[in-house]
């Protein structure tokens, strides 16, 4: 039953807009630009869109806002917002809605002008009354405590965390669209300003503007379109908590469950995955997700990344756009993971192109709270 | 004056206890399981037979960070209570404390409101 969605829906258009800095443009304007560009990429008319899937950091009812702004009258829509992982959830929802005929053309969209609007990371701001007296800083406090606990439990070092940032920068240096480029050493990361022990500013994702969108249709229609289709082979999601206080073990995320669900649906092995796009809001994320998704044993992630395994040319291709750490992070980064995976699977990634037929996108939301995994593949993987 | 204490929800009840100088947590009568933060039912299993009991105040630092700002630094900790539940708090009187350190609760005033904070326990006995 769970295999019924495998390969039934395909991503046929992708785009980003305003990634980096987009002064003078609002979140919905940036979202609109990416939406239109993704439909052009697909060769599908705006008027054909009858499924809308959207989340942003500023819209309380995003499906309504996006439908109105684009002049759409969708017959199916989702505004599920579980933070940065929302868009991997939207892929699952869109695949299910397409399969069941609830819609024929699904548009997934996101936009943010957080950098030029305020220069601060827009975070899920719903206050947690049992946290507020202690003035945690969201979202970094939770991630810092996860990193501290992980280091305590497994003997990982700040150098291990720094290796994640350095690998991301090496990839960014091959991506002309990455926001942060140039040399970055382990020492640079360690000497950066401490924000929340043990995380320095260089362990944290960028604060940029940017929008992204993708278009999905059923597989029969996908073959006739402009771009090589990228199929949704599997997807799964999980929520483990809302407040970091309620996360049972700060060294194990619900990516264990979301990954398992996605791999079961996709019916592929870890060794078949040629590209891993992991939501690196902070350096600790990449280490936890490599472990929780089954790409290295629990507790070994620090040593794994320090060995150069995720550097360009290493054992695994990870975050080839430069990630949230060095490419783009407008507050909710999940859709950018998908855009990069599709770009790579289409062989359109230029200097950073990797040899992959299957890509895994792993989204994360809140403080390691929501996890969603999507496995994408080329025609050859059907 | 009308006594509204019976109508207070768990959050308001917890805060009312704190204002009276008591650190109270919930416990299920049937299962004995402790619950914090206070809720209308035990998470996951749904028991509603939650009664208020005094917390022992004994805890262990599960994780900790120091928030560094231009105005100064302060720590934020996750503390595992001896009863089981975990809470966010602050370890007072120190910049930071090691993970695993034994700590003891007391009620302090933070931002004008009573709140549970912890001190590093004197010479931890085994």
Strand content of chain B: 35-45%
Could you name the CATH homologous superfamily of the largest domain in chain A? Thiolase/Chalcone synthase
Strand order of the largest sheet of chain B: 6-5-4-7-8
Mean pLDDT, all residues of chain A = 96
CATH C-level label of the largest domain in chain B: Mainly Beta
List unreliable stretches of 5+ residues of chain B.
Answer: none
Task: Report the total helices of chain B.
Answer: 1
Q: What report would you give on this structure?
A:
By secondary structure, chain A is an alpha/beta fold. Chain A folds into 2 domains: 138 residues, Thiolase/Chalcone synthase (Peroxisomal Thiolase, Chain A, domain 1), CATH 3.40.47.10; 209 residues, Peroxisomal Thiolase, Chain A, domain 1. Chain A is built from 13 helices and 11 strands. In chain A, the strands form 2 sheets. A 9-stranded mixed β-sheet of chain A has the order 3-2-4-7-1-8-11-10-9, sandwiched between helices. Chain A has a two-stranded antiparallel sheet with strand order 5-6. Chain A is globular and about 55 Å long. Chain B has 1 helix and 8 strands. Chain B is mainly beta and 126 residues long. Chain B has a 5-stranded antiparallel β-sheet. In chain B, strands 2-1-3 form a 3-stranded antiparallel β-sheet. Chain B folds into 2 domains: 50 residues, no CATH class; 63 residues, OB fold (Dihydrolipoamide Acetyltransferase, E2P). Chains A and B meet through helix 5 and strand 5 of A and strand 4, strand 5 and strand 6 of B.
Name the features:
heterodimer, A: Peroxisomal Thiolase, Chain A, domain 1, Peroxisomal Thiolase, Chain A, domain 1, nine-stranded mixed β-sheet, 13 helices, B: 126 residues, OB fold (Dihydrolipoamide Acetyltransferase, E2P), three-stranded antiparallel β-sheet, 1 helix, 8 strands, 8% helix
What can be said about this structure in brief?
Chain A is built from 13 helices and eleven strands.
């Amino acid at each position: 039953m769970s295999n019924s969605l495998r390969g039934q829906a395909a991503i046929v258009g992708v785009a980003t807009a305003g990634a980096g800095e987009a002064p003078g443009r609002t979140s919905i304007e940036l979202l609109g630009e990416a939406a239109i560009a993704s439909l052009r990429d697909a060769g599908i008319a705006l008027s054909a869109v009858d499924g809308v899937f959207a989340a942003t950091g500023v819209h309380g009812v995003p499906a309504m806002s996006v439908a109105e702004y684009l002049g759409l009258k969708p017959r199916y829509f989702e505004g599920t917002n579980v933070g940065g992982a929302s868009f991997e959830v939207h892929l699952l929802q869109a695949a299910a809605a397409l399969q069941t005929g609830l819609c024929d053309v699904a548009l997934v969209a996101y936009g943010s002008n957080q950098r030029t609007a305020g220069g601060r990371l827009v975070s899920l701001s719903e206050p947690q009354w049992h946290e507020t007296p202690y003035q945690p800083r969201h979202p970094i406090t939770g991630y810092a405590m996860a990193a501290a606990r992980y280091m305590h439990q497994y003997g990982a070092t700040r150098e291990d965390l720094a290796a994640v940032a350095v690998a991301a920068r090496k990839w960014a240096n091959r991506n002309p669209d990455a926001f942060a480029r140039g040399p970055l050493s382990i020492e640079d990361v360690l000497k950066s300003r401490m924000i929340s022990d043990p995380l320095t500013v260089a362990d944290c994702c960028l604060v940029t503007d940017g929008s992204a969108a993708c278009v999905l249709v059923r597989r029969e229609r996908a073959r006739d379109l402009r771009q090589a289709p990228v199929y949704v082979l599997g997807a799964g999601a999980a929520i483990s908590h809302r407040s970091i206080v309620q996360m049972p073990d700060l060294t194990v995320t619900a990516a264990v469950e979301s990954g398992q669900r996605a791999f079961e649906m996709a019916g592929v092995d870890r060794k078949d995955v040629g590209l891993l796009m992991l939501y690196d809001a902070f350096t600790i994320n990449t280490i936890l997700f490599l472990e929780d998704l089954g790409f290295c044993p629990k507790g070994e992630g620090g040593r794994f990344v320090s060995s150069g395994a995720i550097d360009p040319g290493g054992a695994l291709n990870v975050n080839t756009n430069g990630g949230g750490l060095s490419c783009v992070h407008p507050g909710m980064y999940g859709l950018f993971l998908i855009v990069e995976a599709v770009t790579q699977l289409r062989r359109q990634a230029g200097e950073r192109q990797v040899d992959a037929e299957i890509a895994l996108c792993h989204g994360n939301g809140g403080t390691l709270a929501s996890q969603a995994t999507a496995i994408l593949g080329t025609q050859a993987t059907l | 004056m009308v006594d509204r204490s019976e109508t207070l929800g768990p959050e308001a009840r917890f805060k009312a206890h704190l204002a009276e100088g008591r650190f109270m947590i919930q416990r299920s009568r049937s299962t004995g399981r402790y619950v914090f933060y206070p809720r209308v039912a035990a998470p996951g299993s749904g028991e509603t037979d939650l009664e208020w009991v005094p917390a022992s105040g004994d805890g262990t630092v599960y994780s900790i960070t120091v928030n560094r700002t231009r105005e100064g630094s302060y720590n934020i900790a996750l503390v595992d209570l001896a009863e089981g539940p975990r809470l966010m708090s602050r370890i007072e009187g120190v910049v930071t404390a090691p993970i695993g350190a034994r700590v003891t609760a007391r009620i302090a005033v933070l931002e004008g409101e009573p709140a549970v904070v912890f001190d590093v326990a004197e010479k931890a006995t085994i």
